[in-house]
Write a structure and sequence with these properties.
18% of the residues lie in helices and 30% in strands. With 234 residues, it is α/β, with parallel strands linked by helices. The chain is globular.
Length: 234
C-alpha cells in the first residue's frame, strides 16, 4: 500500500494465485494483475479447454482484463498425451490457443527461443492482428456467453462499451459436431446491430430489431471467430 501511494500507482504487483488459498480474487484487486495458472505440457496437465473454462468461470466475477491467461508451446511433449486424446494440445491450432487469452491479459508461458520458425511466425501473426483490437476490447465490460467450456461446447465472451455502444464478441466452437450456435445477447434485444467478422472470417451484416439471439457459424471444430459489434440507431 505504501509503494502504491509513494509512486502514485506506478508500481503494480503480479498476484500469484496458482496454488493454495492466496490473495487475488477476494482482496488486493487494486494492486495488479492475477497470475492465474501454472500448467505444463511436461506433466500433461495443460489442456486448452481447461484454461478457457477457468477464464469463463472467473470473468463473471473478476475483470477479465486483470487475469493473466497462458498460452503454451503446443509442439512440446506431444508424447505425454495419448494419440486418442482429442482434447490434447496437439489438436488445437496456435491461433486458437492464443485466442483463448485475447479478452484477458495474454501470458506467453514458454521459452520463445524454443519455438520452431513456423510456430513463432504464426504466433507473431495473430498477436500482431490482435493488437489492433486489444485496447478497444479491454475498454469494455467483459462477461461470458454461451455454455461453460468442457472441450465439447459452444462458448465465448463479449466485451461491450455502453458509452460507445459497441464491442467485440469472440465465439469458440469446441470439439463438437454442430457448425452453428445461437448466443443469447438480451441487452441488445430490439436494437439494430452491425456485425463485422474481423478474425477468421470476413462476413458483415446488419440485423434490424435484433431478437437477442445471435447465430454464429464456424465450419471447423476447435476454431473461433472474432466479431466487432456496433449498435445503430433505428
Amino acid at each position: 500500500d505504501g509503494l502504491r501511494r509513494k509512486t502514485n500507482g506506478d508500481i503494480s504487483f503480479n498476484l500469484d494465485t496458482t496454488a493454495d488459498p492466496r490473495a487475488g480474487y477476494f482482496m488486493f484487486h487494486e494492486y495488479g494483475n492475477i497470475f492465474l495458472e501454472n500448467r505444463y505440457t511436461d506433466f500433461a496437465n495443460y489442456y486448452p479447454w481447461r484454461t478457457l473454462k477457468n477464464l469463463w468461470d472467473l470473468s463473471a466475477f473478476v475483470p477479465a482484463q486483470r487475469l493473466q491467461i497462458e498460452f503454451l508451446n503446443i509442439e512440446r511433449n506431444k508424447d505425454r498425451y495419448g494419440e486418442d486424446d482429442m482434447l490434447a494440445p496437439r489438436y488445437y491450432s496456435p491461433e486458437y490457443v492464443f485466442a483463448i487469452t485475447m479478452f484477458a491479459s495474454p501470458l506467453c508461458w514458454f521459452e520463445p527461443s524454443s519455438l520452431d520458425e513456423k510456430l513463432a511466425s504464426r504466433y507473431a501473426d495473430i498477436i500482431g492482428h490482435y493488437k489492433k483490437y486489444q485496447k478497444e476490447i479491454h475498454r469494455g465490460f467483459i462477461y461470458p456467453i454461451g455454455d461453460r467450456p468442457s472441450g465439447y461446447s459452444w462458448t465465448g465472451f463479449i466485451s461491450y462499451n455502453h458509452e460507445s455502444e459497441s464491442g467485440y464478441l469472440i465465439a469458440f466452437r469446441e470439439y463438437n459436431d454442430n457448425d452453428s450456435h445461437y448466443f443469447e445477447l438480451p441487452f441488445l434485444k430490439g436494437a439494430e446491430i452491425k456485425l463485422d467478422c474481423v478474425m477468421n472470417g470476413s462476413e458483415s451484416h446488419t440485423i434490424g430489431n435484433f431478437d437477442g439471439k445471435l447465430a454464429v457459424n464456424i465450419e471447423q471444430k476447435n476454431s473461433f471467430k472474432l466479431y466487432k459489434i456496433t449498435k445503430r440507431e433505428r
